Amino acid sequence: MQNLDTQTSLSDVYEDICDSIEENPSDFLKLLKAHVKLEKMIPPEFYEAFYKDIGRPRDYRLESFIWFHQLKNIIGIPRDKAFLTVLDLSPEIRDFCGFDKVPSASDITRFRQHFAEYLGIFLARLVEITEPICRKLDPKKSDYLIYDPTGIKAYVTENNPKFLNGKLNQAKAIAKKNPEYDPYKGMYSLLPETSAANPFVKHQYINGHFCYAHKGGIITNGVTDK
C-alpha cells in the first residue's frame, strides 16, 4: 500500500487496489473504508426517501444496501443469492457492509424496485465524482460511452501448469533464504507481464481466473456519422 504521506499518482492508487483485491481482501476493504465515504456521495433526497416514516424503523441502513451492490459488482458475483451466501460465511464482509444480520434475497429485490429512481440519481452523482479521475488516468478512454472488454486465452507456454509450477519452485527457493517471504504471493511477481512468444498476449484476469490472453474490446464513443 502506498504511503499516504507521500505524493502518489492515480495509477499508483489503482495498482494498489488491484493488488489488494488479488492478494489481501482485508487490505482492500480497508482502502475502501479509508477513501470511499458513501455518506458524502449519497444524494440527500435518497436519504429522505429511504428514511421517511414507514411506521417502523428500517431493519437495514441505506449505506449497507449500497455497499452490498458495490462489493458484489467489484468481486464479480452476478447473483444476489450467491453474494448473500458470502455475507453469511464472512463476518468481515458483513461487518464492512454494516449488516447486523444477513438480509433476504427479497429484501435486496424490494430495495432495487422501490428506490430505482434514487439509485439512478446516486449513479449520476458517482459519474460526477469519477469522471475527472478517469480523465486524469486516460483522457481518450474517458470519452468512451461503452467499453465492453473480453479476453481470449492463448495457447502459450505461460498458460501451461508446468510453467506456473516452475515459477512457484523459484519462489520457494527464495523463501528458504528469507523466511518472511511468502512464496505463493511472491510467485505472482515472478510472472512476466506478457508472453515471450507474443507481447500482445498479456497476463490478465478473465472468466474468473488469471491467465495469458489476447485483449479485445468493443468501443462506443457516442459519435454518429452523418
Molecular structure report:
The protein has 226 residues and is mainly alpha-helical. It folds into two domains: 36-137; 144-220, no CATH class. Helices cover 55% and strands 12% of the residues. The chain is built from eleven helices and three strands. The protein has helices at residues 10-23, 25-35, 38-41, 44-50, 62-75, 80-89, 91-97, 105-114, 116-137, 161-177, 183-190; strands at 146-153, 201-206, 209-220. Helix 1 (10-23) crosses helix 2 and helix 10 crosses helix 11. The longest helix has 22 residues, at 116-137. The protein starts with 9 loop residues before the first helix and ends in a 6-residue tail after the last strand. The model is unreliable at 1-8 (pLDDT under 50).
What is shown here, in short?
The chain is mostly helical.
Low-confidence stretches: 1-8
Largest sheet: 3 strands, antiparallel
Provide mean pLDDT, rounded: 80
Assembly context of the chains: single chain
Estimated helix fraction:
40-55%
The count of β-strands is: 3
Number of helices, counting only DSSP H or I runs of 4 residues or more? 11
How many domains? 2
Strand content: 5-15%
Shape: globular
Name the strands of the widest sheet in spatial order.
Answer: 1-3-2
**Strand and helix order:** HHHHHHHHHEHHEE
- Spatial extent as radius of gyration: 21 Å
Termini separation? 49 Å
**What structural class do the secondary elements suggest?**
mainly alpha
